[in-house]
């Protein structure tokens, strides 16, 4: 019977222990593994940022829905009140205009929230990519000096 491996144990796997026996000239296994570990940490952090951004957008959408339902309820009450047909038509036109403007504003706000979350995640990954390229360059410089 195969034993079940816990998810946190999966990342405790130490590749340097297994790669230490393989001596490849000009390759520093510890540096390579350390670099890959930082890559995984950056991806994990970028995923966390994206997830938190998604949660914020979903929360705001729920708030917008709740607000919209309250406004629809109030508008229905306002329109149901007695009055002249011209006044009701003017009121309905004003309500439609306000609803349209709020919708555009809400869409803009949500788009900005999504863009912000995406930019944060992208900036983090871009920074790690630049660091990775610097690490590779340094590794080549070190191996050339040996």
UniProtKB/TrEMBL annotation:
Residues 31-129 form the Phasin domain. Pfam families: Phasin_2. It comes from the Bacteria. Keywords: Coiled coil. InterPro entries: Phasin (IPR018968), Phasin_subfam-1 (IPR010127). Residues 100-127 form a coiled coil. The keyword Coiled coil applies. NCBIfam families: phasin (TIGR01841). This is Phasin. It comes from Magnetospirillum moscoviense.
